[in-house]
């Protein structure tokens, strides 16, 4: 039996012109996770990432912190949906960059509404696959892990949407339940699945053992 570690990227640049890069805190979260695993002697046999920069940068931080030199397999099916495109489907007017609590709440209300409609097939966000296509990319990554890495420790670095979708597929959840998982997952959080050649089983979800200390209280982020 193998173990699959699904890690959401570190804090990205939410509200900036280019979201797809880690903030300085996001880099520190990634380094800390790598160091935590190294302190506990966790070895990794394989690494898979999406193709987004924040995925690559998060893996680079983990690898540096853990002293690892593995070359990741890049699977674009692990890329996140385009949140801006999802929101535009239900709110075509431009939104200001969120910098107040109410603007953040509005952003995530619209995102939840857009995701619900995208999953139901009632909207088609520009430049994005259908939800079935998105979910298929995640399923293909899980199938690859089961087929190629039996009995190994495997790391996937991805985003909240693919990770929540993977957990939803393992548990047989509705798309609506997967949305709730997605919107609660934290930056650099670890989700663990055990796997055999036939199936995955959930062990933990959305944990931050590497930030379990008073000195890391301000390192816990969601966006």
From TrEMBL:
What InterPro entries does the record point to? Answer: His_Pase_superF_clade-1, His_PPase_superfam, PGM_Phosphatase
Please name the GO terms that the record assigns under molecular function. phosphatase activity
GO CC annotations?
cytoplasm
Q: Which Pfam families match?
A: His_Phos_1
The record's listing under CDD domains reads:
HP_PGM_like
* Alphabetical list of PANTHER family matching this protein: BROAD-SPECIFICITY PHOSPHATASE YOR283W-RELATED, HISTIDINE PHOSPHATASE FAMILY PROTEIN-RELATED
In Swiss-Prot or TrEMBL terms, this protein is called Histidine phosphatase family protein
């Amino acid at each position: 039996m193998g173990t699959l570690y699904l890690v959401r990227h570190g804090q990205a640049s939410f509200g900036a012109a280019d979201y797809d890069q880690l903030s300085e805190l996001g880099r520190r979260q990634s380094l800390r996770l790598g160091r935590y695993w190294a302190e506990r002697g966790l070895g990794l046999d394989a690494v898979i990432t999406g193709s987004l920069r924040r995925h690559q940068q998060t893996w680079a931080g983990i690898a540096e912190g853990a002293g690892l030199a593995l070359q990741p397999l890049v699977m674009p099916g692990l890329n996140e949906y385009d949140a801006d495109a999802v929101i535009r489907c239900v709110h075509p007017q431009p939104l200001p960059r969120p910098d107040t609590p109410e603007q953040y709440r509005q952003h995530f209300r619209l995102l939840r509404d857009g995701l619900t409609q995208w999953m139901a097939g009632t909207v088609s966000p520009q430049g994005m696959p259908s939800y079935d296509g998105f979910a298929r990319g995640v399923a293909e990554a899980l199938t690859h892990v089961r087929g190629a890495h039996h009995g190994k420790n495997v790391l996937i670095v991805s985003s909240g949407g693919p990770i929540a979708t993977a957990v939803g597929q393992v548990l047989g959840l509705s798309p609506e339940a997967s949305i709730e998982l997605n919107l609660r997952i934290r930056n650099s959080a670890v989700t663990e699945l055990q796997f055999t050649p036939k199936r995955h089983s959930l062990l933990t979800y959305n944990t931050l053992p590497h930030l379990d200390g008073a000195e890391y209280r301000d390192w816990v982020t969601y966006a």
